Each structure stands twice: as structure tokens, then as C-alpha cells.
Amino acid sequence: MNQLQSIDRLSLNQITTNRWSLKEAVEGSARAEVPWIALWRHKIEEIGLKESKRIIRDAGIKVSSICRGGMFPAPTEAERKERIDDNRRAVDEAAELGTDVLVLVCGPAPNKDLSGARQIVADGIEELIPYAKERGIKLGVEPLHPMYAAERSVIVSLAQANDLAEKYSPDEVGVVVDVFHIWWDPDMFKQIARAKGRILGYHVSDWIVPTPDLLMGRGMMGDGVIDLRPIRLAVEEAGYKGPIEVEIFNQEIWDQPGDDVLALMKDRYIKYV
Amino acid sequence: MNQLQSIDRLSLNQITTNRWSLKEAVEGSARAEVPWIALWRHKIEEIGLKESKRIIRDAGIKVSSICRGGMFPAPTEAERKERIDDNRRAVDEAAELGTDVLVLVCGPAPNKDLSGARQIVADGIEELIPYAKERGIKLGVEPLHPMYAAERSVIVSLAQANDLAEKYSPDEVGVVVDVFHIWWDPDMFKQIARAKGRILGYHVSDWIVPTPDLLMGRGMMGDGVIDLRPIRLAVEEAGYKGPIEVEIFNQEIWDQPGDDVLALMKDRYIKYV
């Protein structure tokens, strides 16, 4: 019931085909008729913004989001300022590439002071908003799984992301919902409902068992234990009807030919998402 | 400030010296003048309950807890009943060995129905209480880190453990606070305070960076990013003055001579806990 009827919302988060360059990922998406792509900044950097833009336009592919801004907490004031500057560049790239969402992975603490780092994140978002707003870019706070708290993000739950976002207009700050990061949370459905009107992205993958690795252990939809459909329906109930990104860090998947990965991804998207 | 002044609350959770048998761990603790030990049931089983009891009594070591009961969710009604029976045996062992705490690691879901599994946990605890109470054993619900949600415990936050415990008298059900499992939680201090009068155990270790492995990645106190002292003070503020278990799953530590591990553990306990 409530199965998706087409792939018109499907987006390839290009980390899923990590061996592919930006050009290969965009052309691969076009071949597979996957209409959306989410770009990573290090892939854009390899060929430059102008060339990236040309490739995307020529292929007729739409950009669902840019990964990633954020990483606010730094040990010194000077470094924190540098990171804000880098976030402004990410905003410019997002605007240039025709998406209105910059995903924020907020960063780990530079020391043992978790709550201090969380305040630096809040301050960083506050500082970034005017620049982003002028360029039509919304900031999407993506909570990461708590197992990344020490190395990637002090924002570890959708509740926290909602707390950060709710201080602002939905035109300024929203949240990004990734099933891999929040599926375990007893509060998940409540927090998805609370994010109504503020969900800026929806990411799918699966949690595989046994979990081989903290970073590289994500699975293709249907290969793990996450009951995906009710989550997608809840996200839609909360007003999000935009692109659905498939974002998978997994060496076995990375080692497969990209075209095969896209074929499998399309199939699983209809079956499980 | 507020440093511990002695090791009179220090307990060796015997998984920390996993190569040692129960006898070796108890005698090692006695040599190191560590007054408490937490026993694992598979170690008790190797030599039997009677012999375990004799060894502990002869060494003059006190038992802080028995690991573990729990594991309630099972695919069939018959298997769920078997697990309750096994929990009753764990209660008997705890009573026989002179502790009043049985730690509950609540178990993963047998399928994709997380909330169903959480209900089975609640039902299992409800069913176990009368038997445990008659034998003077309190049930200590230990929330595990969310990264274990698929394989070890659908109870993943202290908030959840408190929800489960608060339905009962503190003589029946409480919570076990383990820093490794909850240090990332923005709600941690609030939930520790909420657990006032119900904390039945406190476990320490550290979160090391980079984290080498989901299961075997714990570190010795001081080797990681957890700010331990404020957590211990909060636990004491919430009324817990009992034994503090050092529980470390880490191959490098397991490979060291047990006496060296205990010496290091005592030193780090005073410095960091």
C-alpha cells in the first residue's frame, strides 16, 4: 500500500556511486532516467563550479541538494570564522547550481565540551542565515547518528535539529531527515510531525545486520532492518513532497559498476521506500 | 575538584579482563585491592554457581551486579516464554551471589517492528518483577547506545529506561547508567536527574577517536572524548553512591595482562572518573 508509483522524486546522492566523477554520476543518472542528483562539494571542486553547472544543465538533471556546509565548532575564533567563510562559499555553490538547499553536517566538538560545541553550531547557523537568505538558500540541519557524535556531528537527534530550526522562519532553516541516522529513535515519528513545513530533504538507505563498520556500514534499501515505508509516509504527512536521496556509504556498493547500482536503487526505491 | 579519594567504590566488570576466568578475575581483583566485581553469566556457567560463590566469598570480593538478563523480544510466544524463564534463572544467580541488581540488556527486535519489540520489553519486565522482588533483586534497565538498536537493545536512551522504570517502585525497577551508551545525548543530565533514587549502577569507560569498531571500540577512561567527572557528579547528585563498574570491550585491552589492566584502571579511575 502507498507504494511510490514512479521514480520522479528519486535522487542519486553521488556518494552512493563514489567512484564516479561528477560528470559520470550526472550522465549515469541521465542514462538511468533518475531525475535528481545531490552533489558533494569535493566532487564539484575536482572540475570547478562552471563546468559542473554546464554538465548538469546539458544532462537535464536537477540538483536536490549540496553536501555539505556546517562543521562549525573549531578550536579557535579564527578557525570558526574560516568555517563560516567556507559555509558562505557553499551557499554560493548551491545557488549557482540551482538548488535551494544546503545540507549542514554540523561538526564534532574540538574538545570534551559537547554543550559548548552545540552552542557554536547554533551561533554559526545564526551568522550564516542572512547571507544564505539573500541568495535564496535554505539551511537544512541534518542530525547524524549518535555514533558520529565524536567525529562528525554534535547534532544527533531530530529533536535537536528541530530545536535549532524552530528559532527561524521555514524559509531560513529546516531539517534534513535521513533514516539511517534516526531510525532507532523512539521519538522519531513525533519529531517528524513536529518538523512539519520544515523538512528540506529526505534520505534513504538501510541499516544492515551485522553492521560491518561505523562509516561504511550502510545498506541498500531492503537489505536491512529499517521499516522504510511508514517513515516516508510520515515525512509526506509533514508536508515534504520533494526529492528523495539515496545516500549509501558502503564499500561493496562503491565497488560495483555505477549503472548496476542505479538499476538496483531504482528497483529497491519502488519496492521499499 | 571533586576527585574520588579512594577506590572503595571501584568495580571490575569482568568483561574488561575477558581472557580471565571468573576465578582469575576475582583473585586479580583481590590482589589489586579492587573491592567489587561485576560477573557475567557465561563466566559463572563455566564453573557453576556454587563454585563461583565459594571463590567470591573466599576472596572477600563483593558482587556489584550480574550481567545480564533481558533479551525479551523473540519471534514466537514460546521463545519469549523461554527468555522469561532464563531471566528467572538470572535472578536466582544474582540472589545466590549476593548482589541485589540484575542488569537488563533488553534485546533487539526479531523483525522490523521496533515499537512492537519495545512493548515486548515492557511486558517482559512486568512479568519478571514478582519473581525478582520475592528474591530481593532489583531490575536495572540499561539503555544501550543507538548503534546497538538492531543487534542488542531496542532501549536506546535513558529517557526510555526511565519511562520503563517509573511505572514501578524503585525497589522493583531502576536504571543502569553507562557513559559509553549515553554520553552523546543532549538530554543526558536531565534524564540522570529524573532517575533520582532509581540508579542501580554506574558504568565507566571512554569513547575513543577514531572509533575502531562498533562493539570493540571502547577505551580506558581518559583515552577518549567523554568528560567523565560531571557525569559521575550528576549520578551522585541523583542519589547513587554505589559501586562504579569499569566495563571495556576492547581487544587491545583484552590482550594485556589482567594485572596491568587493573593497575591502569585504578589510576585512571582516580584521575578521570
UniProtKB/TrEMBL annotation, chains A, B:
InterPro entries associated with the record: IolE/XylAMocC-like, Xyl_isomerase-like_sf, Xyl_isomerase-like_TIM-brl
Organism field: Lederbergia citrea
GO molecular function per UniProt: isomerase activity
The name this protein goes by in its record: Sugar phosphate isomerase/epimerase
Sequence ranges assigned to domain Xylose isomerase-like TIM barrel in this UniProt record: 40-256
Keywords, alphabetical: Isomerase
Pfam families: AP_endonuc_2
Keyword Isomerase among record annotations: yes
Keyword Transit peptide among UniProt keywords: no
